[in-house]
Structures are given as structure tokens and as C-alpha cells.
Amino acid sequence: MRVSPLKHTLAVLRILVGLTQKEMAAILHCSAPTIQAIELGKLNLSEKLAGLVSLQTGINLAWLLKNDVNQPPIDIKGKAYTKETFEEFQAVNHIRQTPTMENEVAIYYQEKFIERLHALLIRAYINDDTDLCVYKLSKVFDELEKQFHVTEADRNAIYLNKRPNLEADAKKDNPLSWIECISGFYDVLDLEEKKKIAARGLKLYSEAELKEQNIQSVYLDDNGQLIVNRLSQSKPINLKPKSKNKK
Fold first, then answer.
1. Residue 61 exposed, middle or buried by CB count within 10 Å (0-12, 13-18, 19+)
2. Higher-confidence residue: 206 or 109?
3. From the DSSP assignment, how many helices (H) and strands (E) are in the chain?
4. Which end of the chain is more exposed for a tag (fewer CB within 10 A), N or C?
5. What is the C-alpha separation between 124 and 132, in angstroms, rounded?
6. Model pLDDT, residue 235
7. Which long-range contacts (CB under 8 A, 24 or more apart) does 187-190 make?
8. 26-75 confidence digits (pLDDT tens)
9. SS3 assignment for 49-74
10. Domains and CATH numbers, the chain
11. Within 10 Å of residue 84's Cβ, how many Cβ atoms?
């Protein structure tokens, strides 16, 4: 297979971490020719595939998509990216992609973006730009909802547990409270987590099982990044999703 020059950030990343195009393709669940075509500039790196690259390697998504090979690679926290970064990320990646941890990440960003939204609207109000701010936010939300296929059913699901007679209440023009919205978000997220676990035949790890894998605790830091505290450095982490049928 033709060796690609460093014309793309994907090639910079792959060579930095010491992977062949075939090995990178295996991590991303795509073909080696796809990796080669992107690195040669014959195929654009899609946002979806770029997101998967970031998820699997810990590389900064903005750096990857900007495709400026003259800029040094950085990780998801904005720090210098090294081969050690990749190896550490791979060690805990199976935990990061479990339904339960995905749930925690979603909650983290829900709280983070609500905080940013509040600050934005307050600043717009102070600057007498509330209408302009709301207009631009509406355009962004419309575009994102279209891209991620958000439906009216998705919006209503947040309230259904709190308002079984949602349509009847709407006809009466009963306002939906902020508390109902926040509470409903957690309810729906927990329900979808249970569905994912059941569909994948997974079970949650017990404290004893985590210790067997040399893990003391797993949590998200203030930046929303996965932190794994190890009992010692003597054993490598090899935590893969377990099936209910396996012992």
C-alpha cells in the first residue's frame, strides 16, 4: 500500500502513535483504503469519523478537523499529545465507552452547557442584545437538531414521565416547568442507559471486579474527562465489556 505523506492531521496522529494504516482502520472500524484516501487528500475526513478518531485516541477534535499539519497535536484537554497519551487513553477506553460512563458524560455536558447558556443570555441582556442572541441560538439549535435527527417525540419524552397527559395539558396551555425539564432529562437518560445495557448484554462492574482490574475508582474531572485511579502501576488495565452470559 502506498505510503501517504504528512498532508493530513490523521497521518500525523497515526505516525506519532506508531500505527499502520491497517491498524488505524481496525481501531476506527473502517477500511485501510479509507484511511489512505483521507491521508492523501482524496477523501474528506467526515465529522462523524473524526469524532470516532477523537473518542478512540484522545486527540483534540478541533485540531484534527482543522487539518493544519504545521500545528502540534494536542489532546482533548488542549495539552501536548504524545504516544504516551494514546497508550493511556487506550488503557481506559473500554470504560469510557460503557453505557454508564456515557450517561455520566451526557450529564456533565448538560450541566456545563446550561451554565454557558445562562452566562450568554445574561451578557446579551446586559448588552441589550437579547433578541439577536436568541435569534442566533435558534439558528444553531435548528441546524444541530436537523443534523442529529431530533424529533418532536424526543422533546416530549423529557416530560412524559411527569406529564402523562402531555397533549391535554398543552391544550390547556399549562406551562412546563424548568424542574420538570431537568428531572425528565435524567429519567430519560437512565431509561436509555438501561436499554443500551440490555441490548448489548452487558452488566455493571462491581467494586470487586474493578479491583481485579487494578482500578480503585473511575470518575469525571472538572473538564469532563475520564479519570481512572489505579491501585498500583504493576498491572495493565484490560477492562472490556462483559456479557451477562459470561462468568
1. middle
2. 109
3. 12, 2
4. C
5. 8
6. 44
7. 187/158, 187/161, 187/162, 188/157, 188/158, 188/161, 189/103, 189/106, 189/107, 190/103
8. 989 899 999 999 999 999 999 999 988 988 898 999 999 999 999 999 99
9. HHHHHHHHHCECHHHHHHCCCCCCCE
10. 9-91 (1.10.260)
11. 9
